[in-house]
C-alpha cells in the first residue's frame, strides 16, 4: 500500500512538473524549434531575450502592473475585511457577496465591461487601465484571504487596543496588520502571480505599452521558438525564487 502511495505521488508530481520541465529543457535547444530531439545546449536564446528591448519593456510593464495593482488591491481588501469583521451591518452578508462576486465572473466579461466603461468616460487603453482591471480581479482574492484569517483572538486584541485609547489607524497599522502578516503576504503574492500571468484583460486594455503575456502572444503568432521557452523559464525562476524566499522567511517565522 505504501508503494502504491509513493507511486501515485511520483506520478502526480510528474504530471504537474513535466510541462514546466519540458519548457526549461527546450529553452536551451540549439536549434530553431523547441521540439524533440534535443540537439544541444546553448544560452543563445537567453542572450537574445535579455537583449530584446521590447521584451524587457514588456517585462518592466508587467512588474509595474502586477505590483502596483496588487498593492492597491491588498490595501482595499484589508480595509474592507477589517470593516466588515469589526461591525455586523444588516447587509454585511450581501456586501461580502458583492466583494467576492468578480471571482465568479469570466475575465473576458470583466475586460469587455471595463473597456466599455473606459470608452464611455474617455479613458484610453493603457497600463493604467490594465492595472485598474487587475485590481478588480485581485480585490476579491485579497478580501477573502484576509477576512478568513481574522479570528476571534484578533478581534479581541483590536477591541482592547481601542479601549486603551488607540486611534483607528494605529489599530490597523500597529496591531491588525502585524497579526495578519502571513495572510497579507499570501494575498499580495497570489495577486502578483495572477496579475503577472493575466492575458485577456491586459490584451483588451492596453495598446502600445503592453505587458509580458501580450508580448509573448505576439511572438507566438510568428511560430514556436526557444526564445519563448527562455522567457517562460525566466518567469518561472522568478516565481520559484519568491515562493522559496517566503517559505524560509515569513511563513517559517509565523509557524514557529
TrEMBL record:
Pfam families: BPD_transp_1. It is found in: Cell membrane. Residues 59-246 form the ABC transmembrane type-1 domain. Keywords: Cell membrane, Membrane, Transmembrane, Transmembrane helix, Transport. Its main location: membrane. GO terms for biological process: transmembrane transport. GO terms for cellular component: plasma membrane. InterPro entries: Bact_Polyamine_Transport, MetI-like, MetI-like_sf. It is a multi-pass membrane protein. The chain crosses the membrane at residues 58-81, 93-115, 127-150, 171-196, 230-251. SUPFAM superfamilies: MetI-like (SSF161098). The keyword Transport applies. Belongs to the binding-protein-dependent transport system permease family. CysTW subfamily. This is ABC transporter permease subunit. It comes from Paracoccus litorisediminis. The lineage of its organism: Bacteria, Pseudomonadati, Pseudomonadota, Alphaproteobacteria, Rhodobacterales.
